[in-house]
Amino acid sequence: MESKTFNTVCPKDCFGSCALKVKVENGKIIGVYGNKDHPVTKGMICVKGKNYTKMVYSKERLLYPLKRVGTRGDGEFRRIPWEEAIDTIHTRLASLKEEYGPESILYYCGSGNMGIVKEAAYGFWYQFGGFTSVYGDLCNAAGVEALNLTYGSRKSNALEDLENSKLIVLWGKNPANTHLHMMYHINRALKKGAKLVTIDPRISESSHESDLHLRPRCGTDGCLALGVAKRLVETNTIDIDFINRNTHGFDRFREFLKDYPLEKVAEITGVPQNEIEAFVGYIGDNPHYALVCGFGLQRYTNGGQTVRTIALLPALTGSIGKRGCGLYFGDKQGPGLVWPYLPQKPDKIRGIPLALLSTELNQQTNPPIKAMWIEAANPVTSNPNSSSLKNGMNKLDFIVVCDLFLTDTARMADIVLPAASPFEYYDLVKGYGHSYIQLQQKVIEPPGECKHESEVYRMLGRRFGFDETYLPENSLDVIERVIEASNLNTTREKLKEKAYLHQDFQEIAYSDLKFDTPSGKIEFYCQQMRDKWGQSPLPVYREPAEGKRTTPLLYKEYPLHFVTGHSRKKINSQFSNILELREDPLLAINPTDAKTRKIESGDAVRVFNTRGEVKLKAFVTDKVPLGFVHAFFGSWGDEANVNKLTADRLTDIGYGAAFHDCLVEVEKYFNNGKNS
Ligand SMILES: Nc1nc2c(c(=O)[nH]1)N[C@H]1C(S)=C(S)[C@@H](COP(=O)(O)OP(=O)(O)OC[C@H]3O[C@@H](n4cnc5c(=O)[nH]c(N)nc54)[C@H](O)[C@@H]3O)O[C@H]1N2
Ligand SMILES: Nc1nc2c(c(=O)[nH]1)N[C@H]1C(S)=C(S)[C@@H](COP(=O)(O)OP(=O)(O)OC[C@H]3O[C@@H](n4cnc5c(=O)[nH]c(N)nc54)[C@H](O)[C@@H]3O)O[C@H]1N2
Ligand SMILES: [Mo]
Question: Which CATH architecture has domain 142-332+520-533?
Fold first, then answer.
C-alpha cells in the first residue's frame, strides 16, 4: 500500500490559514490533521478542517459539466462532455461580445479560496478584450480602508503576544467561531489573569469569560468609542507624549469630542453611563491593552467611521508598538503575491461595486450586462438582497458557474463546470490572520472530470485562439514563477517543509512607530476621508441607514434589528451541505420579544421585511437583547437564505456591504401557510 503525508494549507477565506498535514493512501485522502510545526497555527484545526474528507468525497460533489434543461433556478440539468461545454461557452461569449461589447460579460471570482493561482483567470479575460469586474467586497472593505487611512497600513502584533496583555477588548469580533488561534491565546491570557471586556449586542460564543460586557444598540459603536475617548481625555487617562510625537490632529479631535457627552452617548448607544465609565476604568488600570476589532461592526452604512473611531482609542493611551498592546483587525504585512502571467490589460474593463450587484443587474446600465461568469462564489446565498439579485440574474442571457457543488447560485447557471478542491491543485496562500505564506499542494487527482479553473481557461482560450503563454497549466513550476515574481526568499521545495515569513515582519506591529499616512502619523484628523470619500475628516458619528432613529416609520412595522453572523460549522456558505456539520437555521430572539409574539423555542417562525421572507426555527434566549434577532448566514435553500432580507447598500468608505443595516419583523409560522 502506498502511503504518503503532505504538508499543505487550508486556503479558505478565514483568519486561520491553518497548516495541514494530509495523509494519502493509494491516491485517496484518509486523514486531514493540523501541522504542529507551524509557528502560528500550531496543529490546531477547526471542525470543518477535521471534516474536510467529507467535503472532498461528498456524493454531492459535481463531477461533470452540466447544461441547464429546465427553467433557470429549477436545478434541472443534463450531463454534457467538456467539449460541448467549452463550445457552448465560446459561441455565447463571442456573440455577446460582438453584439454588446466585452463589458456585457461580468466576471466575478468570490472568496471561495485565498490562493494566488485564481489570477490565472485574467490571462483569459484580458485577452478576451475586456469585461465588467467587481470592486469593493462583502467582507471587511470598510474597516480595511479605515485602517489604511488612519494608520497607513493594517498590521497587528503576533497572536502570541496577546498572552502579554493584561486587558483584552473584544469589540464586534467572535473568535471562538471565526479565529480559533486567537481564541487559544486569549484563553491563555485569561488564565494568567488578564481581564476581558466584550462589546457586542449579543452574548457571543467568545464572551462568556468577560469581566465586563457592553451591549450597544446595533451600529452605534462609533458613538460609544467617542464617549470612551471623551472620558479618557477628560480624566487625563492619555499619553500626551505619545500623542504629540505620533499622531496628527489631536487638538481638533479633543475639541470635537465636546459633542459627545456621556449622557448623550448612553442615550444613543443604549449602554448605561456607569458601564461606559467602568470600561474607561479598565483602560485606566491598563492603558497598554490589546484591542481586537472584528468585522461585525463594520457591516453598517457607517462602518468605516466606526472602525476609524475605535482604532483611534489605542493611540490615546500610547497602546501601539509595544508588547501586550495594539490593534488587531487582520494582519497584512510583507509583500503581496504577484501573478506573473498577465497579458496587456485591455481598456474596456468596467467596474461595479460587488455590494450593489443586485441593483446593478436590475438597473442594467449601458452597455447592458448580458452574461455572468461566476467562480469560487455563491452570491445567491452570500450577497445581500438575494431575491432581487436572482431577479437580476434572470434577466441575463447566459450564466456560467464553476463550483464544487450545485449551490443555489450554480442552480441559476446555464452551464455548470465542476471545480477542483484545494487538495487537487497547487497554490500559494497568504491569508489575513497571520503573515506566513504557505504552499498548497496537489495531493490527489481531481475526481471525475473536475478541473481547476486554469485548465478551463486554457481550453476556452485555445478555442478563442488566445496566446497560451498567459494560460499556464497548474503546476509547481507556476508556483516557482510566483515565488520569483513576488521576490520571496524561499523556494517551492523549502515551502513544502516550512511556511515563509517575510524578513521585515514586525512581531510587534508599528514598533518602529512609522505610519504610512500623508502626515506620517496616526491620523485623528484625516483629510483623505474628505478628499477620497466625501466624509468628515473627524470621526463623526452617523446613525445607520436602517434603524429606529433613521427610519422611524419602517421601524414601527419592522421593529427588530437583524444581524447575520458567521457560524462555527460553516465557512461563509461552505460546508452547509455536509451532513456532519449541518445545523438548524436558528433565529435567536429575546424572551420578551418572543413572548409578545407568542413564540416559543422550536417554533417555526417567519422573518420578513419589504425585501423578502424566510422561515427559521426560533431559539428563545436572553443571549440576544431586546429588539434584536440573530441568525448565522450561509444556509442553503430558499427558505433559510437570510440574505433575502438584507439590503444591498454600500458602507460609507471602501465599497463594503452594509448587511447589518436591516430591520425585520418575526411571527409564528403555521404549517397551513397562514400566520398568527
Ligand atoms: N467558522 C468560521 N470562521 C470564519 C468564517 C466563517 O464563516 N465561519 N468566515 C471568515 C470570514 S470571511 C470573516 S469576514 C470573518 C468574520 O469574523 P468576525 O468579525 O469575528 O465575525 P462576525 O460573525 O461577522 O461578527 C462578529 C461579531 O460582531 C457582532 N456584531 C454585529 N453587529 C454589531 C454591532 O453593531 N456592534 C458590535 N459591537 N458588534 C456587532 C456579532 O454579534 C458577532 O458576534 O471570519 C472568518 N472566519
Ligand atoms: N448576511 C450576511 N452575509 C454575508 C456575510 C455576513 O456577515 N452576513 N459575510 C460576508 C463575507 S465576510 C464574505 S467573505 C462573503 C463570502 O461570500 P462568497 O465569496 O460568495 O463565499 P462563499 O459563500 O464561501 O462561496 C464560495 C463558493 O466557492 C466554492 N469554491 C471553493 N473553492 C473553490 C475553488 O477553488 N474553485 C471554485 N470554482 N469554487 C470554489 C465553494 O464551494 C462555494 O460555493 O459572504 C458575505 N455574506
Ligand atoms: Mo469575509
Answer: 3-Layer(aba) Sandwich (3.40)
CA of 565 to the centre of ligand 1 (A): 5
Residue 83, burial from CB neighbour count under 10 angstroms (0-12, 13-18, 19+): exposed
Q: Kindly indicate whether the domain formed by 66-135+342-422+437-495 is annotated with CATH number 3.40.50.740.
A: yes
Average pLDDT, stretch 11-40? Answer: 97
Contact 113 CB / ligand 2 (< 6 Å): yes
Q: Which CATH number fits domain 552-668: 2.10.109.10, 2.40.40.20, 3.10.20.600, 3.20.20.120?
A: 2.40.40.20
User: DSSP per residue over 332-390, as a string?
Assistant: --SPPP------PPPS-EEEEEGGGHHHHHHH--SSPP-EEEEES--HHHHSSSHHHHH
Distances (CA, A) of 391 to 362, 386, 534, 573, 582: 7, 8, 32, 20, 28
How far is it, in rounded angstroms, from Cα 269 to Cα 266?
5
Could you give the CA distance from residue 393 to residue 400 in angstroms, rounded to a whole number? Answer: 11
As a dihedral over the C-alpha atoms of residue 574, residue 578, residue 580, residue 585, rounded to 10 degrees, the angle is 60
CB 285 within 8 Å of CB 202: no
* Residue 552 clears pLDDT 50, i.e. is over it: yes
Task: Provide the whole-model pTM.
Answer: 0.97
In which band, very low, low, confident or very high, does the pLDDT at 671 lie, cut at 50, 70 and 90? low
Residue 676 pLDDT = 44
Domain ranges of the chain: 3-56, 66-135+342-422+437-495, 142-332+520-533, 552-668
pLDDT tens digits, residue range 106-162? 999 999 999 999 999 999 999 999 999 999 999 999 999 999 999 999 999 999 999
Query: At 573, is the secondary structure helix, strand, or coil?
Result: coil
Q: Report residue 209's pLDDT band, with 50, 70 and 90 as the boundaries.
A: very high
The preferred substitution site among 200, 572, 629 for testing ligand 2, maximizing ligand atoms within 8 Å of CB, is: 572
- Pick one of 2.130.10.10, 3.40.50.300, 3.40.50.720, 3.30.200.210 as the CATH number of 3-56: 3.30.200.210
| Three-class secondary structure assignment of 467-532 | CHHHCCCCCHHHHHHHHHHCCCCCCHHHHHHCCECCCCCCCCCCCCCCCCCCCCCEECCCHHHHHH
Which 8-state DSSP code applies to residue 188? H
Q: How confident is the model at residue 670 (pLDDT cuts 50, 70, 90)?
A: confident
Which ligand has its closest atom nearest to the C-alpha of 110?
Answer: 2
CB burial of 526-553 (b: ≥16 within 10 Å; e: otherwise) equals bebbeeebebbbbbbbbbbbbbbebbee
Q: Name the phi and psi angles at 56, rounded to 5.
A: -65, -40
Q: Compute, in angstroms, the gap from residue 657 CA to the centroid of ligand 1.
A: 13
Strand 167-171 with 290-293, pairing: parallel
* Percent over 90 (pLDDT), the chain: 96
Task: Using most ligand atoms within 8 A of CB, pick from 52, 566, 633 the residue to mutate for ligand 1.
Answer: 566
Ligand 2 in reach of 110 Cβ (< 6 A): yes
Whether ligand 2 lies within 6 angstroms of the CB of 357 is answered as no
> In this structure, which ligand is nearest to the CA of 544?
1
